[in-house]
Amino acid sequence: MNALPFYIGNFISCFVLSAEKRHKIRSDVNFSLYKKSVVRIIKQIFNEKVKDIKFVRQHTPSRFVCVVNDKYYVKIFKKCSKKRIKNFEFLVNWVRKFMDVNIPKIYTSNDGRVYITEKIPGRSIYSFDKEFVLKNQEKILKQCTDIISQLQSIDLKKIPNANRFTVALEPTSKKMKPENITNESVLAHLDLNVRNFLFDENLNICRLIDFDSMCIINDKNKDMQIFMKYWERYKKSTQKHPL
Length: 243
Prior knowledge:
- This protein has about 240 residues and is α+β, with helices and mostly antiparallel strands.
- The chain has two domains: about 5-120, Phosphorylase Kinase, domain 1, CATH 3.30.200.20; about 125-235, Aminoglycoside 3'-phosphotransferase, Chain: A, domain 2 (Alpha-Beta Complex), CATH 3.90.1200.
- It is about 40% helix and about 15% strand.
- The protein has seven helices and nine strands; from the N terminus they run H-H-E-E-E-H-E-E-H-H-H-E-E-E-E-H.
- The chain has helices at about 5-15, 20-45, 80-95, 130-135, 135-155, 165-170, 220-235, and strands spanning about 55-60, 65-70, 70-75, 105-110, 115-120, 185-190, 195-200, 205-210, 215.
- The strands form three sheets. A five-stranded antiparallel sheet has the order 1-2-3-5-4. A two-stranded antiparallel ribbon has the order 6-9.
- The two termini are about 25 Å apart.
C-alpha cells in the first residue's frame, strides 16, 4: 500500500474553496482508491471476505477511517514508520490487560501504515441529548479521572524495553510546561478527545479508542488537560459529530 491516494485527494481538494466540500472530496478519493487495499488486508489478517465497507471520517489530510463488515475499524496513515506502528501495536495490546475500560485489540499491517481494531458496541457522546450529558458531567469526569489514574499506575519497569516508547513519540511531549515536568514517568494517552470515548445508555464509559499517540512522558497532568480542553469544546458546540 502506498500514499498516492492521499496526494491525489489532497491535490484535487486544493481547487475547492468550500472547506466542507474540500473535506468530502478528499475523503471520497481516499476511500475509493483504498478500497481494494482494505479488502486485501482484512483477508490477510482475519482470512475474512469483505461484504461491506463504509467511510467513517477523515479529520486530517494524513489519515482516514473506515468500518468493514460492521466489525472492524480500519485507520490508514499517509505516512507512518513501520517501527512506530509496530511499537504502538505492542504497547496498546500490552496495556489493555491492565485497564478496566474496554480497549480494543490492535492489529497492524505488515507495511506499517494501517491499523485495525474490533468494533465494540457503544455510543458517541454527541448522540446523547446534551442536557442529559451535562447533568451527568461529574460522573463522566470521575470516570475519565479513574481511567487516567489506571494508566498512570502501570509499572513501566514491567514493559519490555520501555525506553522505546519514550523515544518513539517524544515530539508529543515537547510542549510540556516546565512546572509540570516531574521525575516520575507515566503512560499518557495524549488524545483524550471526548469522541474517543464510547458510552452505554447510562453514560458509563465502555470503550476508549485512538491510542496512536500513547507514550511515556513526565507530565502527570497532561491527559486531564487534554480531556478538559475537548470537554469545554463539546459544551460550547452545537454541531453533531460522527463517531
